[in-house]
TrEMBL record:
Domain HBM: 47-286
Lineage top rank: taxon: Bacteria
SUPFAM superfamilies from the UniProt entry: Methyl-accepting chemotaxis protein (MCP) signaling domain
UniProt-recorded name of the protein: Methyl-accepting chemotaxis protein
Subcellular location: Cell inner membrane
Family membership noted in the UniProt record: Belongs to the methyl-accepting chemotaxis (MCP) protein family.
Biological processes per GO annotation: signal transduction
Domain (Methyl-accepting transducer): residue spans on this chain: 406-649
Keywords, ordered alphabetically: Cell inner membrane, Cell membrane, Coiled coil, Membrane, Transducer, Transmembrane, Transmembrane helix
The HAMP domain, residue ranges: 320-373
Principal cellular location given in the protein's record: membrane
A cellular component annotation (GO) from this entry: plasma membrane
Topology class, membrane: Multi-pass membrane protein
Organism the protein comes from: Roseospirillum parvum
Amino acid sequence: MKFLNNIRIGMKIGGGFGVAVLLLVLIGVVAGLALTSVGSSFNEYRGLARAANEVGRVQANMLLTRMGVINFLRTQDQATIKTVQERGDATLEFAKETRGMVDDPQRLKLLDEVVANIDKYRAGFAQVVQRQGERDAQVKVMDEAGPRIEQNLTEVMRSAYRDADAEAAYLAGLVLRDLLLARLYAFRYLDSNSQADHDRAIRELDSAEQGQGTLLASLQNPERRRLATEAGQLIDTYRTAFGAAFSAISARNAIVSGELDRLGPLVASQIEDFKLDVIKRQDQLGPEAEAAIAAAITTTIIVAVVAAVFAIAAAFLIGSGIARPVGAMTAAMRRLAENDLSVDIPATDHKDEVGEMAKSMLVFKENMQKNREMAAAQEAERQARETRARRMEELTKEFDANVSGVLEMVSSASTELRATAESLSATAEQSNRQATAVAAATEEASTNVQTVASGAEELSSSISEISRQVVHSSKISQNAADEAQRTNDIVRGLATSASRIGEVVALITDIADQTNLLALNATIEAARAGEAGKGFAVVANEVKSLANQTAKATEEISQQINAVQNETNAAVDAIEHIVKVIGEINEISSAIASAVEEQNAATQEIASNTQQAAAGTNEVAENILGVTQAAQETGSGAEQVLEASGQLSEQATSMRRVVEGFLNGVRSL
């Protein structure tokens, strides 16, 4: 991973955490999209379940409506009319509500037909009620005319019997018999609506009318003639009312058989088709949702594992890529502080802040090496001076022994003056040369120290920049940890949403139980209807079966939702692990920042000491200049003494040979 050495520290840490955060966001997006897909399927399934339950209510109310119609046709109970109308209105309302829950065009078309047929059924029942009212009005006329005819004929029979008019009594009895038979078959027809009963009633009425004409022709008594005539009129009224009742009943039965008996089964069949289509779609949605959940779980786990692996790898690479060279730099600086110049400066080929710091340290090391070499040269020169001084002392002693005889001839003052002058002159010249050399060396040392100080300042600046980058990286790490925590909260929110979906599943289960109860009530009502309700009992059982299927499907969805919740919790655990890893990276960044701060402090101390050394070197240079000036003044004084001693040169001629030998010995040093 050498390419990391060419990337700035801030970019390393920021890039690593940025990719880790992107992976965390990717986990959230994948989980969100998966839950959205599952939620969409579940919403559709829930909508279908609600529509199925609602259409079940339509079916149940339609059954109750048809049972009410049958009960009304059997009993003609006026209270039943209101019940049937209310059931019909409820059926229509439930059908319209069901239509509002559906968006599939085919199902909408089917429900539109159901709504239209229910509306036609209600209108047909209204016509049945109207025809039934017409029938009841005519039956009332028949109920009023029949007893009066019977009373008149009975009175004719009694009067004729009292008057011993046997023929009139006999004929009145025949008419009364025909009337009673006509009423009997008329009432039987009203109950059975049998065409045979109707025809028999008409024949009996015809016979009664003929008998009434014969009776009227045989009567002579005015009162009996009046009663017979009135009876004939009432028979005509009865016949007319019975004909009108027959028409009303025929029209009513035509509506029942042509409309109601056709529309009722048709609506039931259409509702059954709707339920089967819904069940078919639910059977498709179940496997689709299951596959989507499985894919979401797999994808979330894969992305979470990849994110965790990448975070751990990034933490290791970034941490080692910063800590290892910084640690090596710290060790190298410690050895330099201990004057160990054999140490190798690491990371000089890096292109980041560590590389810049390494280059500054390399300059610092080179300057220390130059200073050490300069100090060694000065020490060698000092030792050479000491050796020369010792040799000079030995030659001087030898010289003193050789020329002692000659010096006796010269006055002690001249000898001492000459020796002193020469010594002063040589010493002044030597001091001048040495002072000049020392001044030059001091100036060079001062320059080198200034260079070292500049390098130390540059090193301190580089370490400060590294410290700033590490602090910035620590902040990025903290932000990444906060972002990971926020992603963790989002996934926990998704887990809570999955729990809420479970509550909705429980609600659908309750609706299915209510549908089952409604089907049970419809079964009970069908049982009460007897033979006429058997068909409805079958449909009620189908509604109950649908409710059970809905409950079973809801239970399966609940199991799938529990699986989603479990996997969502697993994703939460994985994200919490990633948050922990990012926290550890944050701690590593903080440790690096502390180490860099300590290194910065050490470098600043070195820079300060170097500046002080530079100041001391400058002071030495100034003192050396003073020594040089003093040496020059000493040389001037020596020259003056030498001039003063010129007068003694003749006396020292004899000493020249000895001096030449002395000088030869000095040159050999």
